[in-house]
Amino acid sequence: MSLRTLDDLGEVDGTTIFVRVDFNVPLTDDGQVADDARIRAALPTIRDLVERGAAVVCATHLGRPKGTPNDAFRVAPVAERLAALLDEPTTVQALGMPGDEPTKAAVGSLGPGQVALLENLRFDPGEETNDPVFAGVMAELVDGYVDDAFGAAHRAHASVRALPELMRASGRAAVAGRLMQREVEVLGRLLHEAVHPYVAILGGAKVSDKLGVIDALIDRVDALLIGGAMAFTLLAAEGARVGRSLVEADRFDDVRAAQAHAKDRGVLIELPVDVVVASKIAVDVPTQTVNAREIPNELMGLDVGPRTVEEYARILADAKTILWNGPMGVFELEPFSAGTRGVAIAAAGADAFTVVGGGDSLLAIKQAGLAEGFDHLSTGGGASLEFLEGRRLPGIEILEDDPDERRNPN
Ligand code: ADP
Ligand code: MG
Question: Of ligand 1's atoms, which has the minimum distance to the CA of residue 204?
Fold first, then answer.
């Protein structure tokens, strides 16, 4: 089953192409773009279409305006940044909503190579309900569809699912952009043909967010290195004393089942041996490093300790494939950032194919100045986890060669 891409789009000179991007960027308090990584990530696709003579109508969601227009989530600053990032001195016209008359007129008068950005799609309630009527309004504007919003591919929203469905049903193209293509290639490689030893590092806040991916990874990896708050649910389920660390007691049965699954498959699940503890999450509290299974009652574990980093680094040094999702501790605060940094250095230094997913994990790696050391920084948080679980993502399957055939395998 293969993904249709920009290479399958054919002649686009003089046509108008809809490009679903993920420009859901963080904004500063005064409404400026705080980090333009997501805008940069879509440039190869936009440039490709511009060079081929298409008029490009970009569209994104931004924040959670919940179906009504909201000045705090307008895309104008994003359009401005996009214009600055494109090589040619270009303006990127900030359009209104797809059904507005001025929008229709403006799209109609776009020339070859011109770029515009529709207003925040989530101002229309039809976006999140995957409304075919809203999709129809978007479809009317354009001749073809490109999806480069990997970060939104796990959501069946109108611009991600109903719109490409409509395009295909009406004989128009619906294909993946370069970013989407690369994500599917890299994550698909981890899913189907990872080189062993394959080691996954999992951390972050909640084990309940990641039980699905833990279970799926156990079928594929050789070792799982656990850190972050989720480690304490696994430790507590084994009867360790974890003090006031974050524990999801309602997940004990699930994590015990995962442990049994791992044992069955001969997969090593490594838990922290030492942790950095404090009485609360703050920069100015006294900290100490203690045995991970004997945390004093009044303290909580907020990072993995140096012995754990050493142990994890030893396992990572032999890996040929490394997947990382979720920081090892409260990396946002300096006293609890060493574990994440240490593991990041070990992963970046390994002679392995290295992939990172997850918003906070990416932030941690960039903060540590280690982004260059990784082969792929996935732009999808939830989307990459669902993909790695082996689930079919609604925004991806619709871009595949024969989605219908695939949905009903005889
Ligand atoms: P990602 O965005 O990379 O998927 P998550 O959102 O799952 O990661 O988790 C990141 C959050 O987990 C961070 O805000 C971090 O402070 C928090 N965290 C990590 N370790 C701990 C811990 N021991 N106690 C409390 N919070 C933690
Ligand atoms: Mg997060």
Answer: 9
Minimal-distance CA residue to ligand 1 atom 10: 204
Q: Quick check: 224 and 269 in contact, CB under 8 A?
A: yes
Which of 99, 136, 382, 390 is flagged as catalytic? 382
pLDDT in tens, 346-392: 999 999 999 999 889 999 999 899 999 999 999 888 899 999 999 99
Identify whether 206 is a catalytic site residue.
Answer: yes
Q: Which fold has domain 6-181+393-407?
A: Rossmann fold (3.40.50)
Rg, C-alpha atoms of the chain: 23
Cα 22 to ligand 2 centre (Å): 17
Q: Splitting the chain (410 residues) into consecutive groups of 10 residues, what average pLDDT does each group show? A: 92 97 93 92 96 97 96 96 86 94 97 96 98 98 98 97 97 97 96 96 92 94 97 97 97 96 96 98 97 98 98 98 97 97 97 94 91 93 92 96 54
Choosing from 360, 366, 374, 378 the residue with most ligand 1 atoms within 8 A of its CB, the one to mutate for a pocket test is 360
Please give the distance of CA 90 from its chain centroid, rounded to a whole number.
29
Q: Which atom of ligand 1 is nearest to the CA of 331?
A: 16
Check if 81 is active-site.
no
Is the distance from the beta carbon of residue 381 to the nearest atom of ligand 1 less than 6 Å? yes
pTM, two decimal places: 0.91
Q: Reduced to 3 states, what is the DSSP secondary structure of residue 241?
A: strand
- For CATH 3.40.50.1260, list the domain ranges present in the chain: 6-181+393-407, 194-379
Inter-CA distances, 173 with 10, 48, 115, 134, 392, Å: 9, 16, 19, 19, 21
> What is the 42 CA–ligand 2 centroid distance (Å)?
22
Q: Going by CATH, does the domain composed of 194-379 fall within 3.30.930.10? A: no
**Is the Cβ–Cβ distance between 341 and 372 less than 8 Å?**
no
